[in-house]
Amino acid sequence: MGAVPSGGEGGIQAEFGPYLAGFRRRIQESLHYPPAARRRGLGGTVQLEIELLPTGKVASVVVRSSSSHAILDEAALDSVTRLSPVPFPPGLAPRPLKVRLPIVFELQ
Description:
Elements: E1 2-5, H1 17-30, H2 35-39, E2 44-52, E3 58-65, H3 70-81, E4 97-106
Antiparallel strand pairs: 1-4, 2-3, 2-4
């Protein structure tokens, strides 16, 4: 049983690829499948839109497409908002990034 982010950066330049791969990995590591959702057999995909500042701080995160289960949507939002910032590495343009990221909750 697990919850994992998957998918791409929505047209972000390739130079940000390694940074965003690390960002997705950090979300995956912090993501928890809510026990109540697990007991009820709930699953689904939450599509998040996340704005990242060059400091690595999450400026905003919104649900663009719900999993149809508020408990899963909240778990996805919570995982992203609790991440500690990791600044962009030197050489990347110091501009805010908006990324869309699907978070998949799937009982296995």
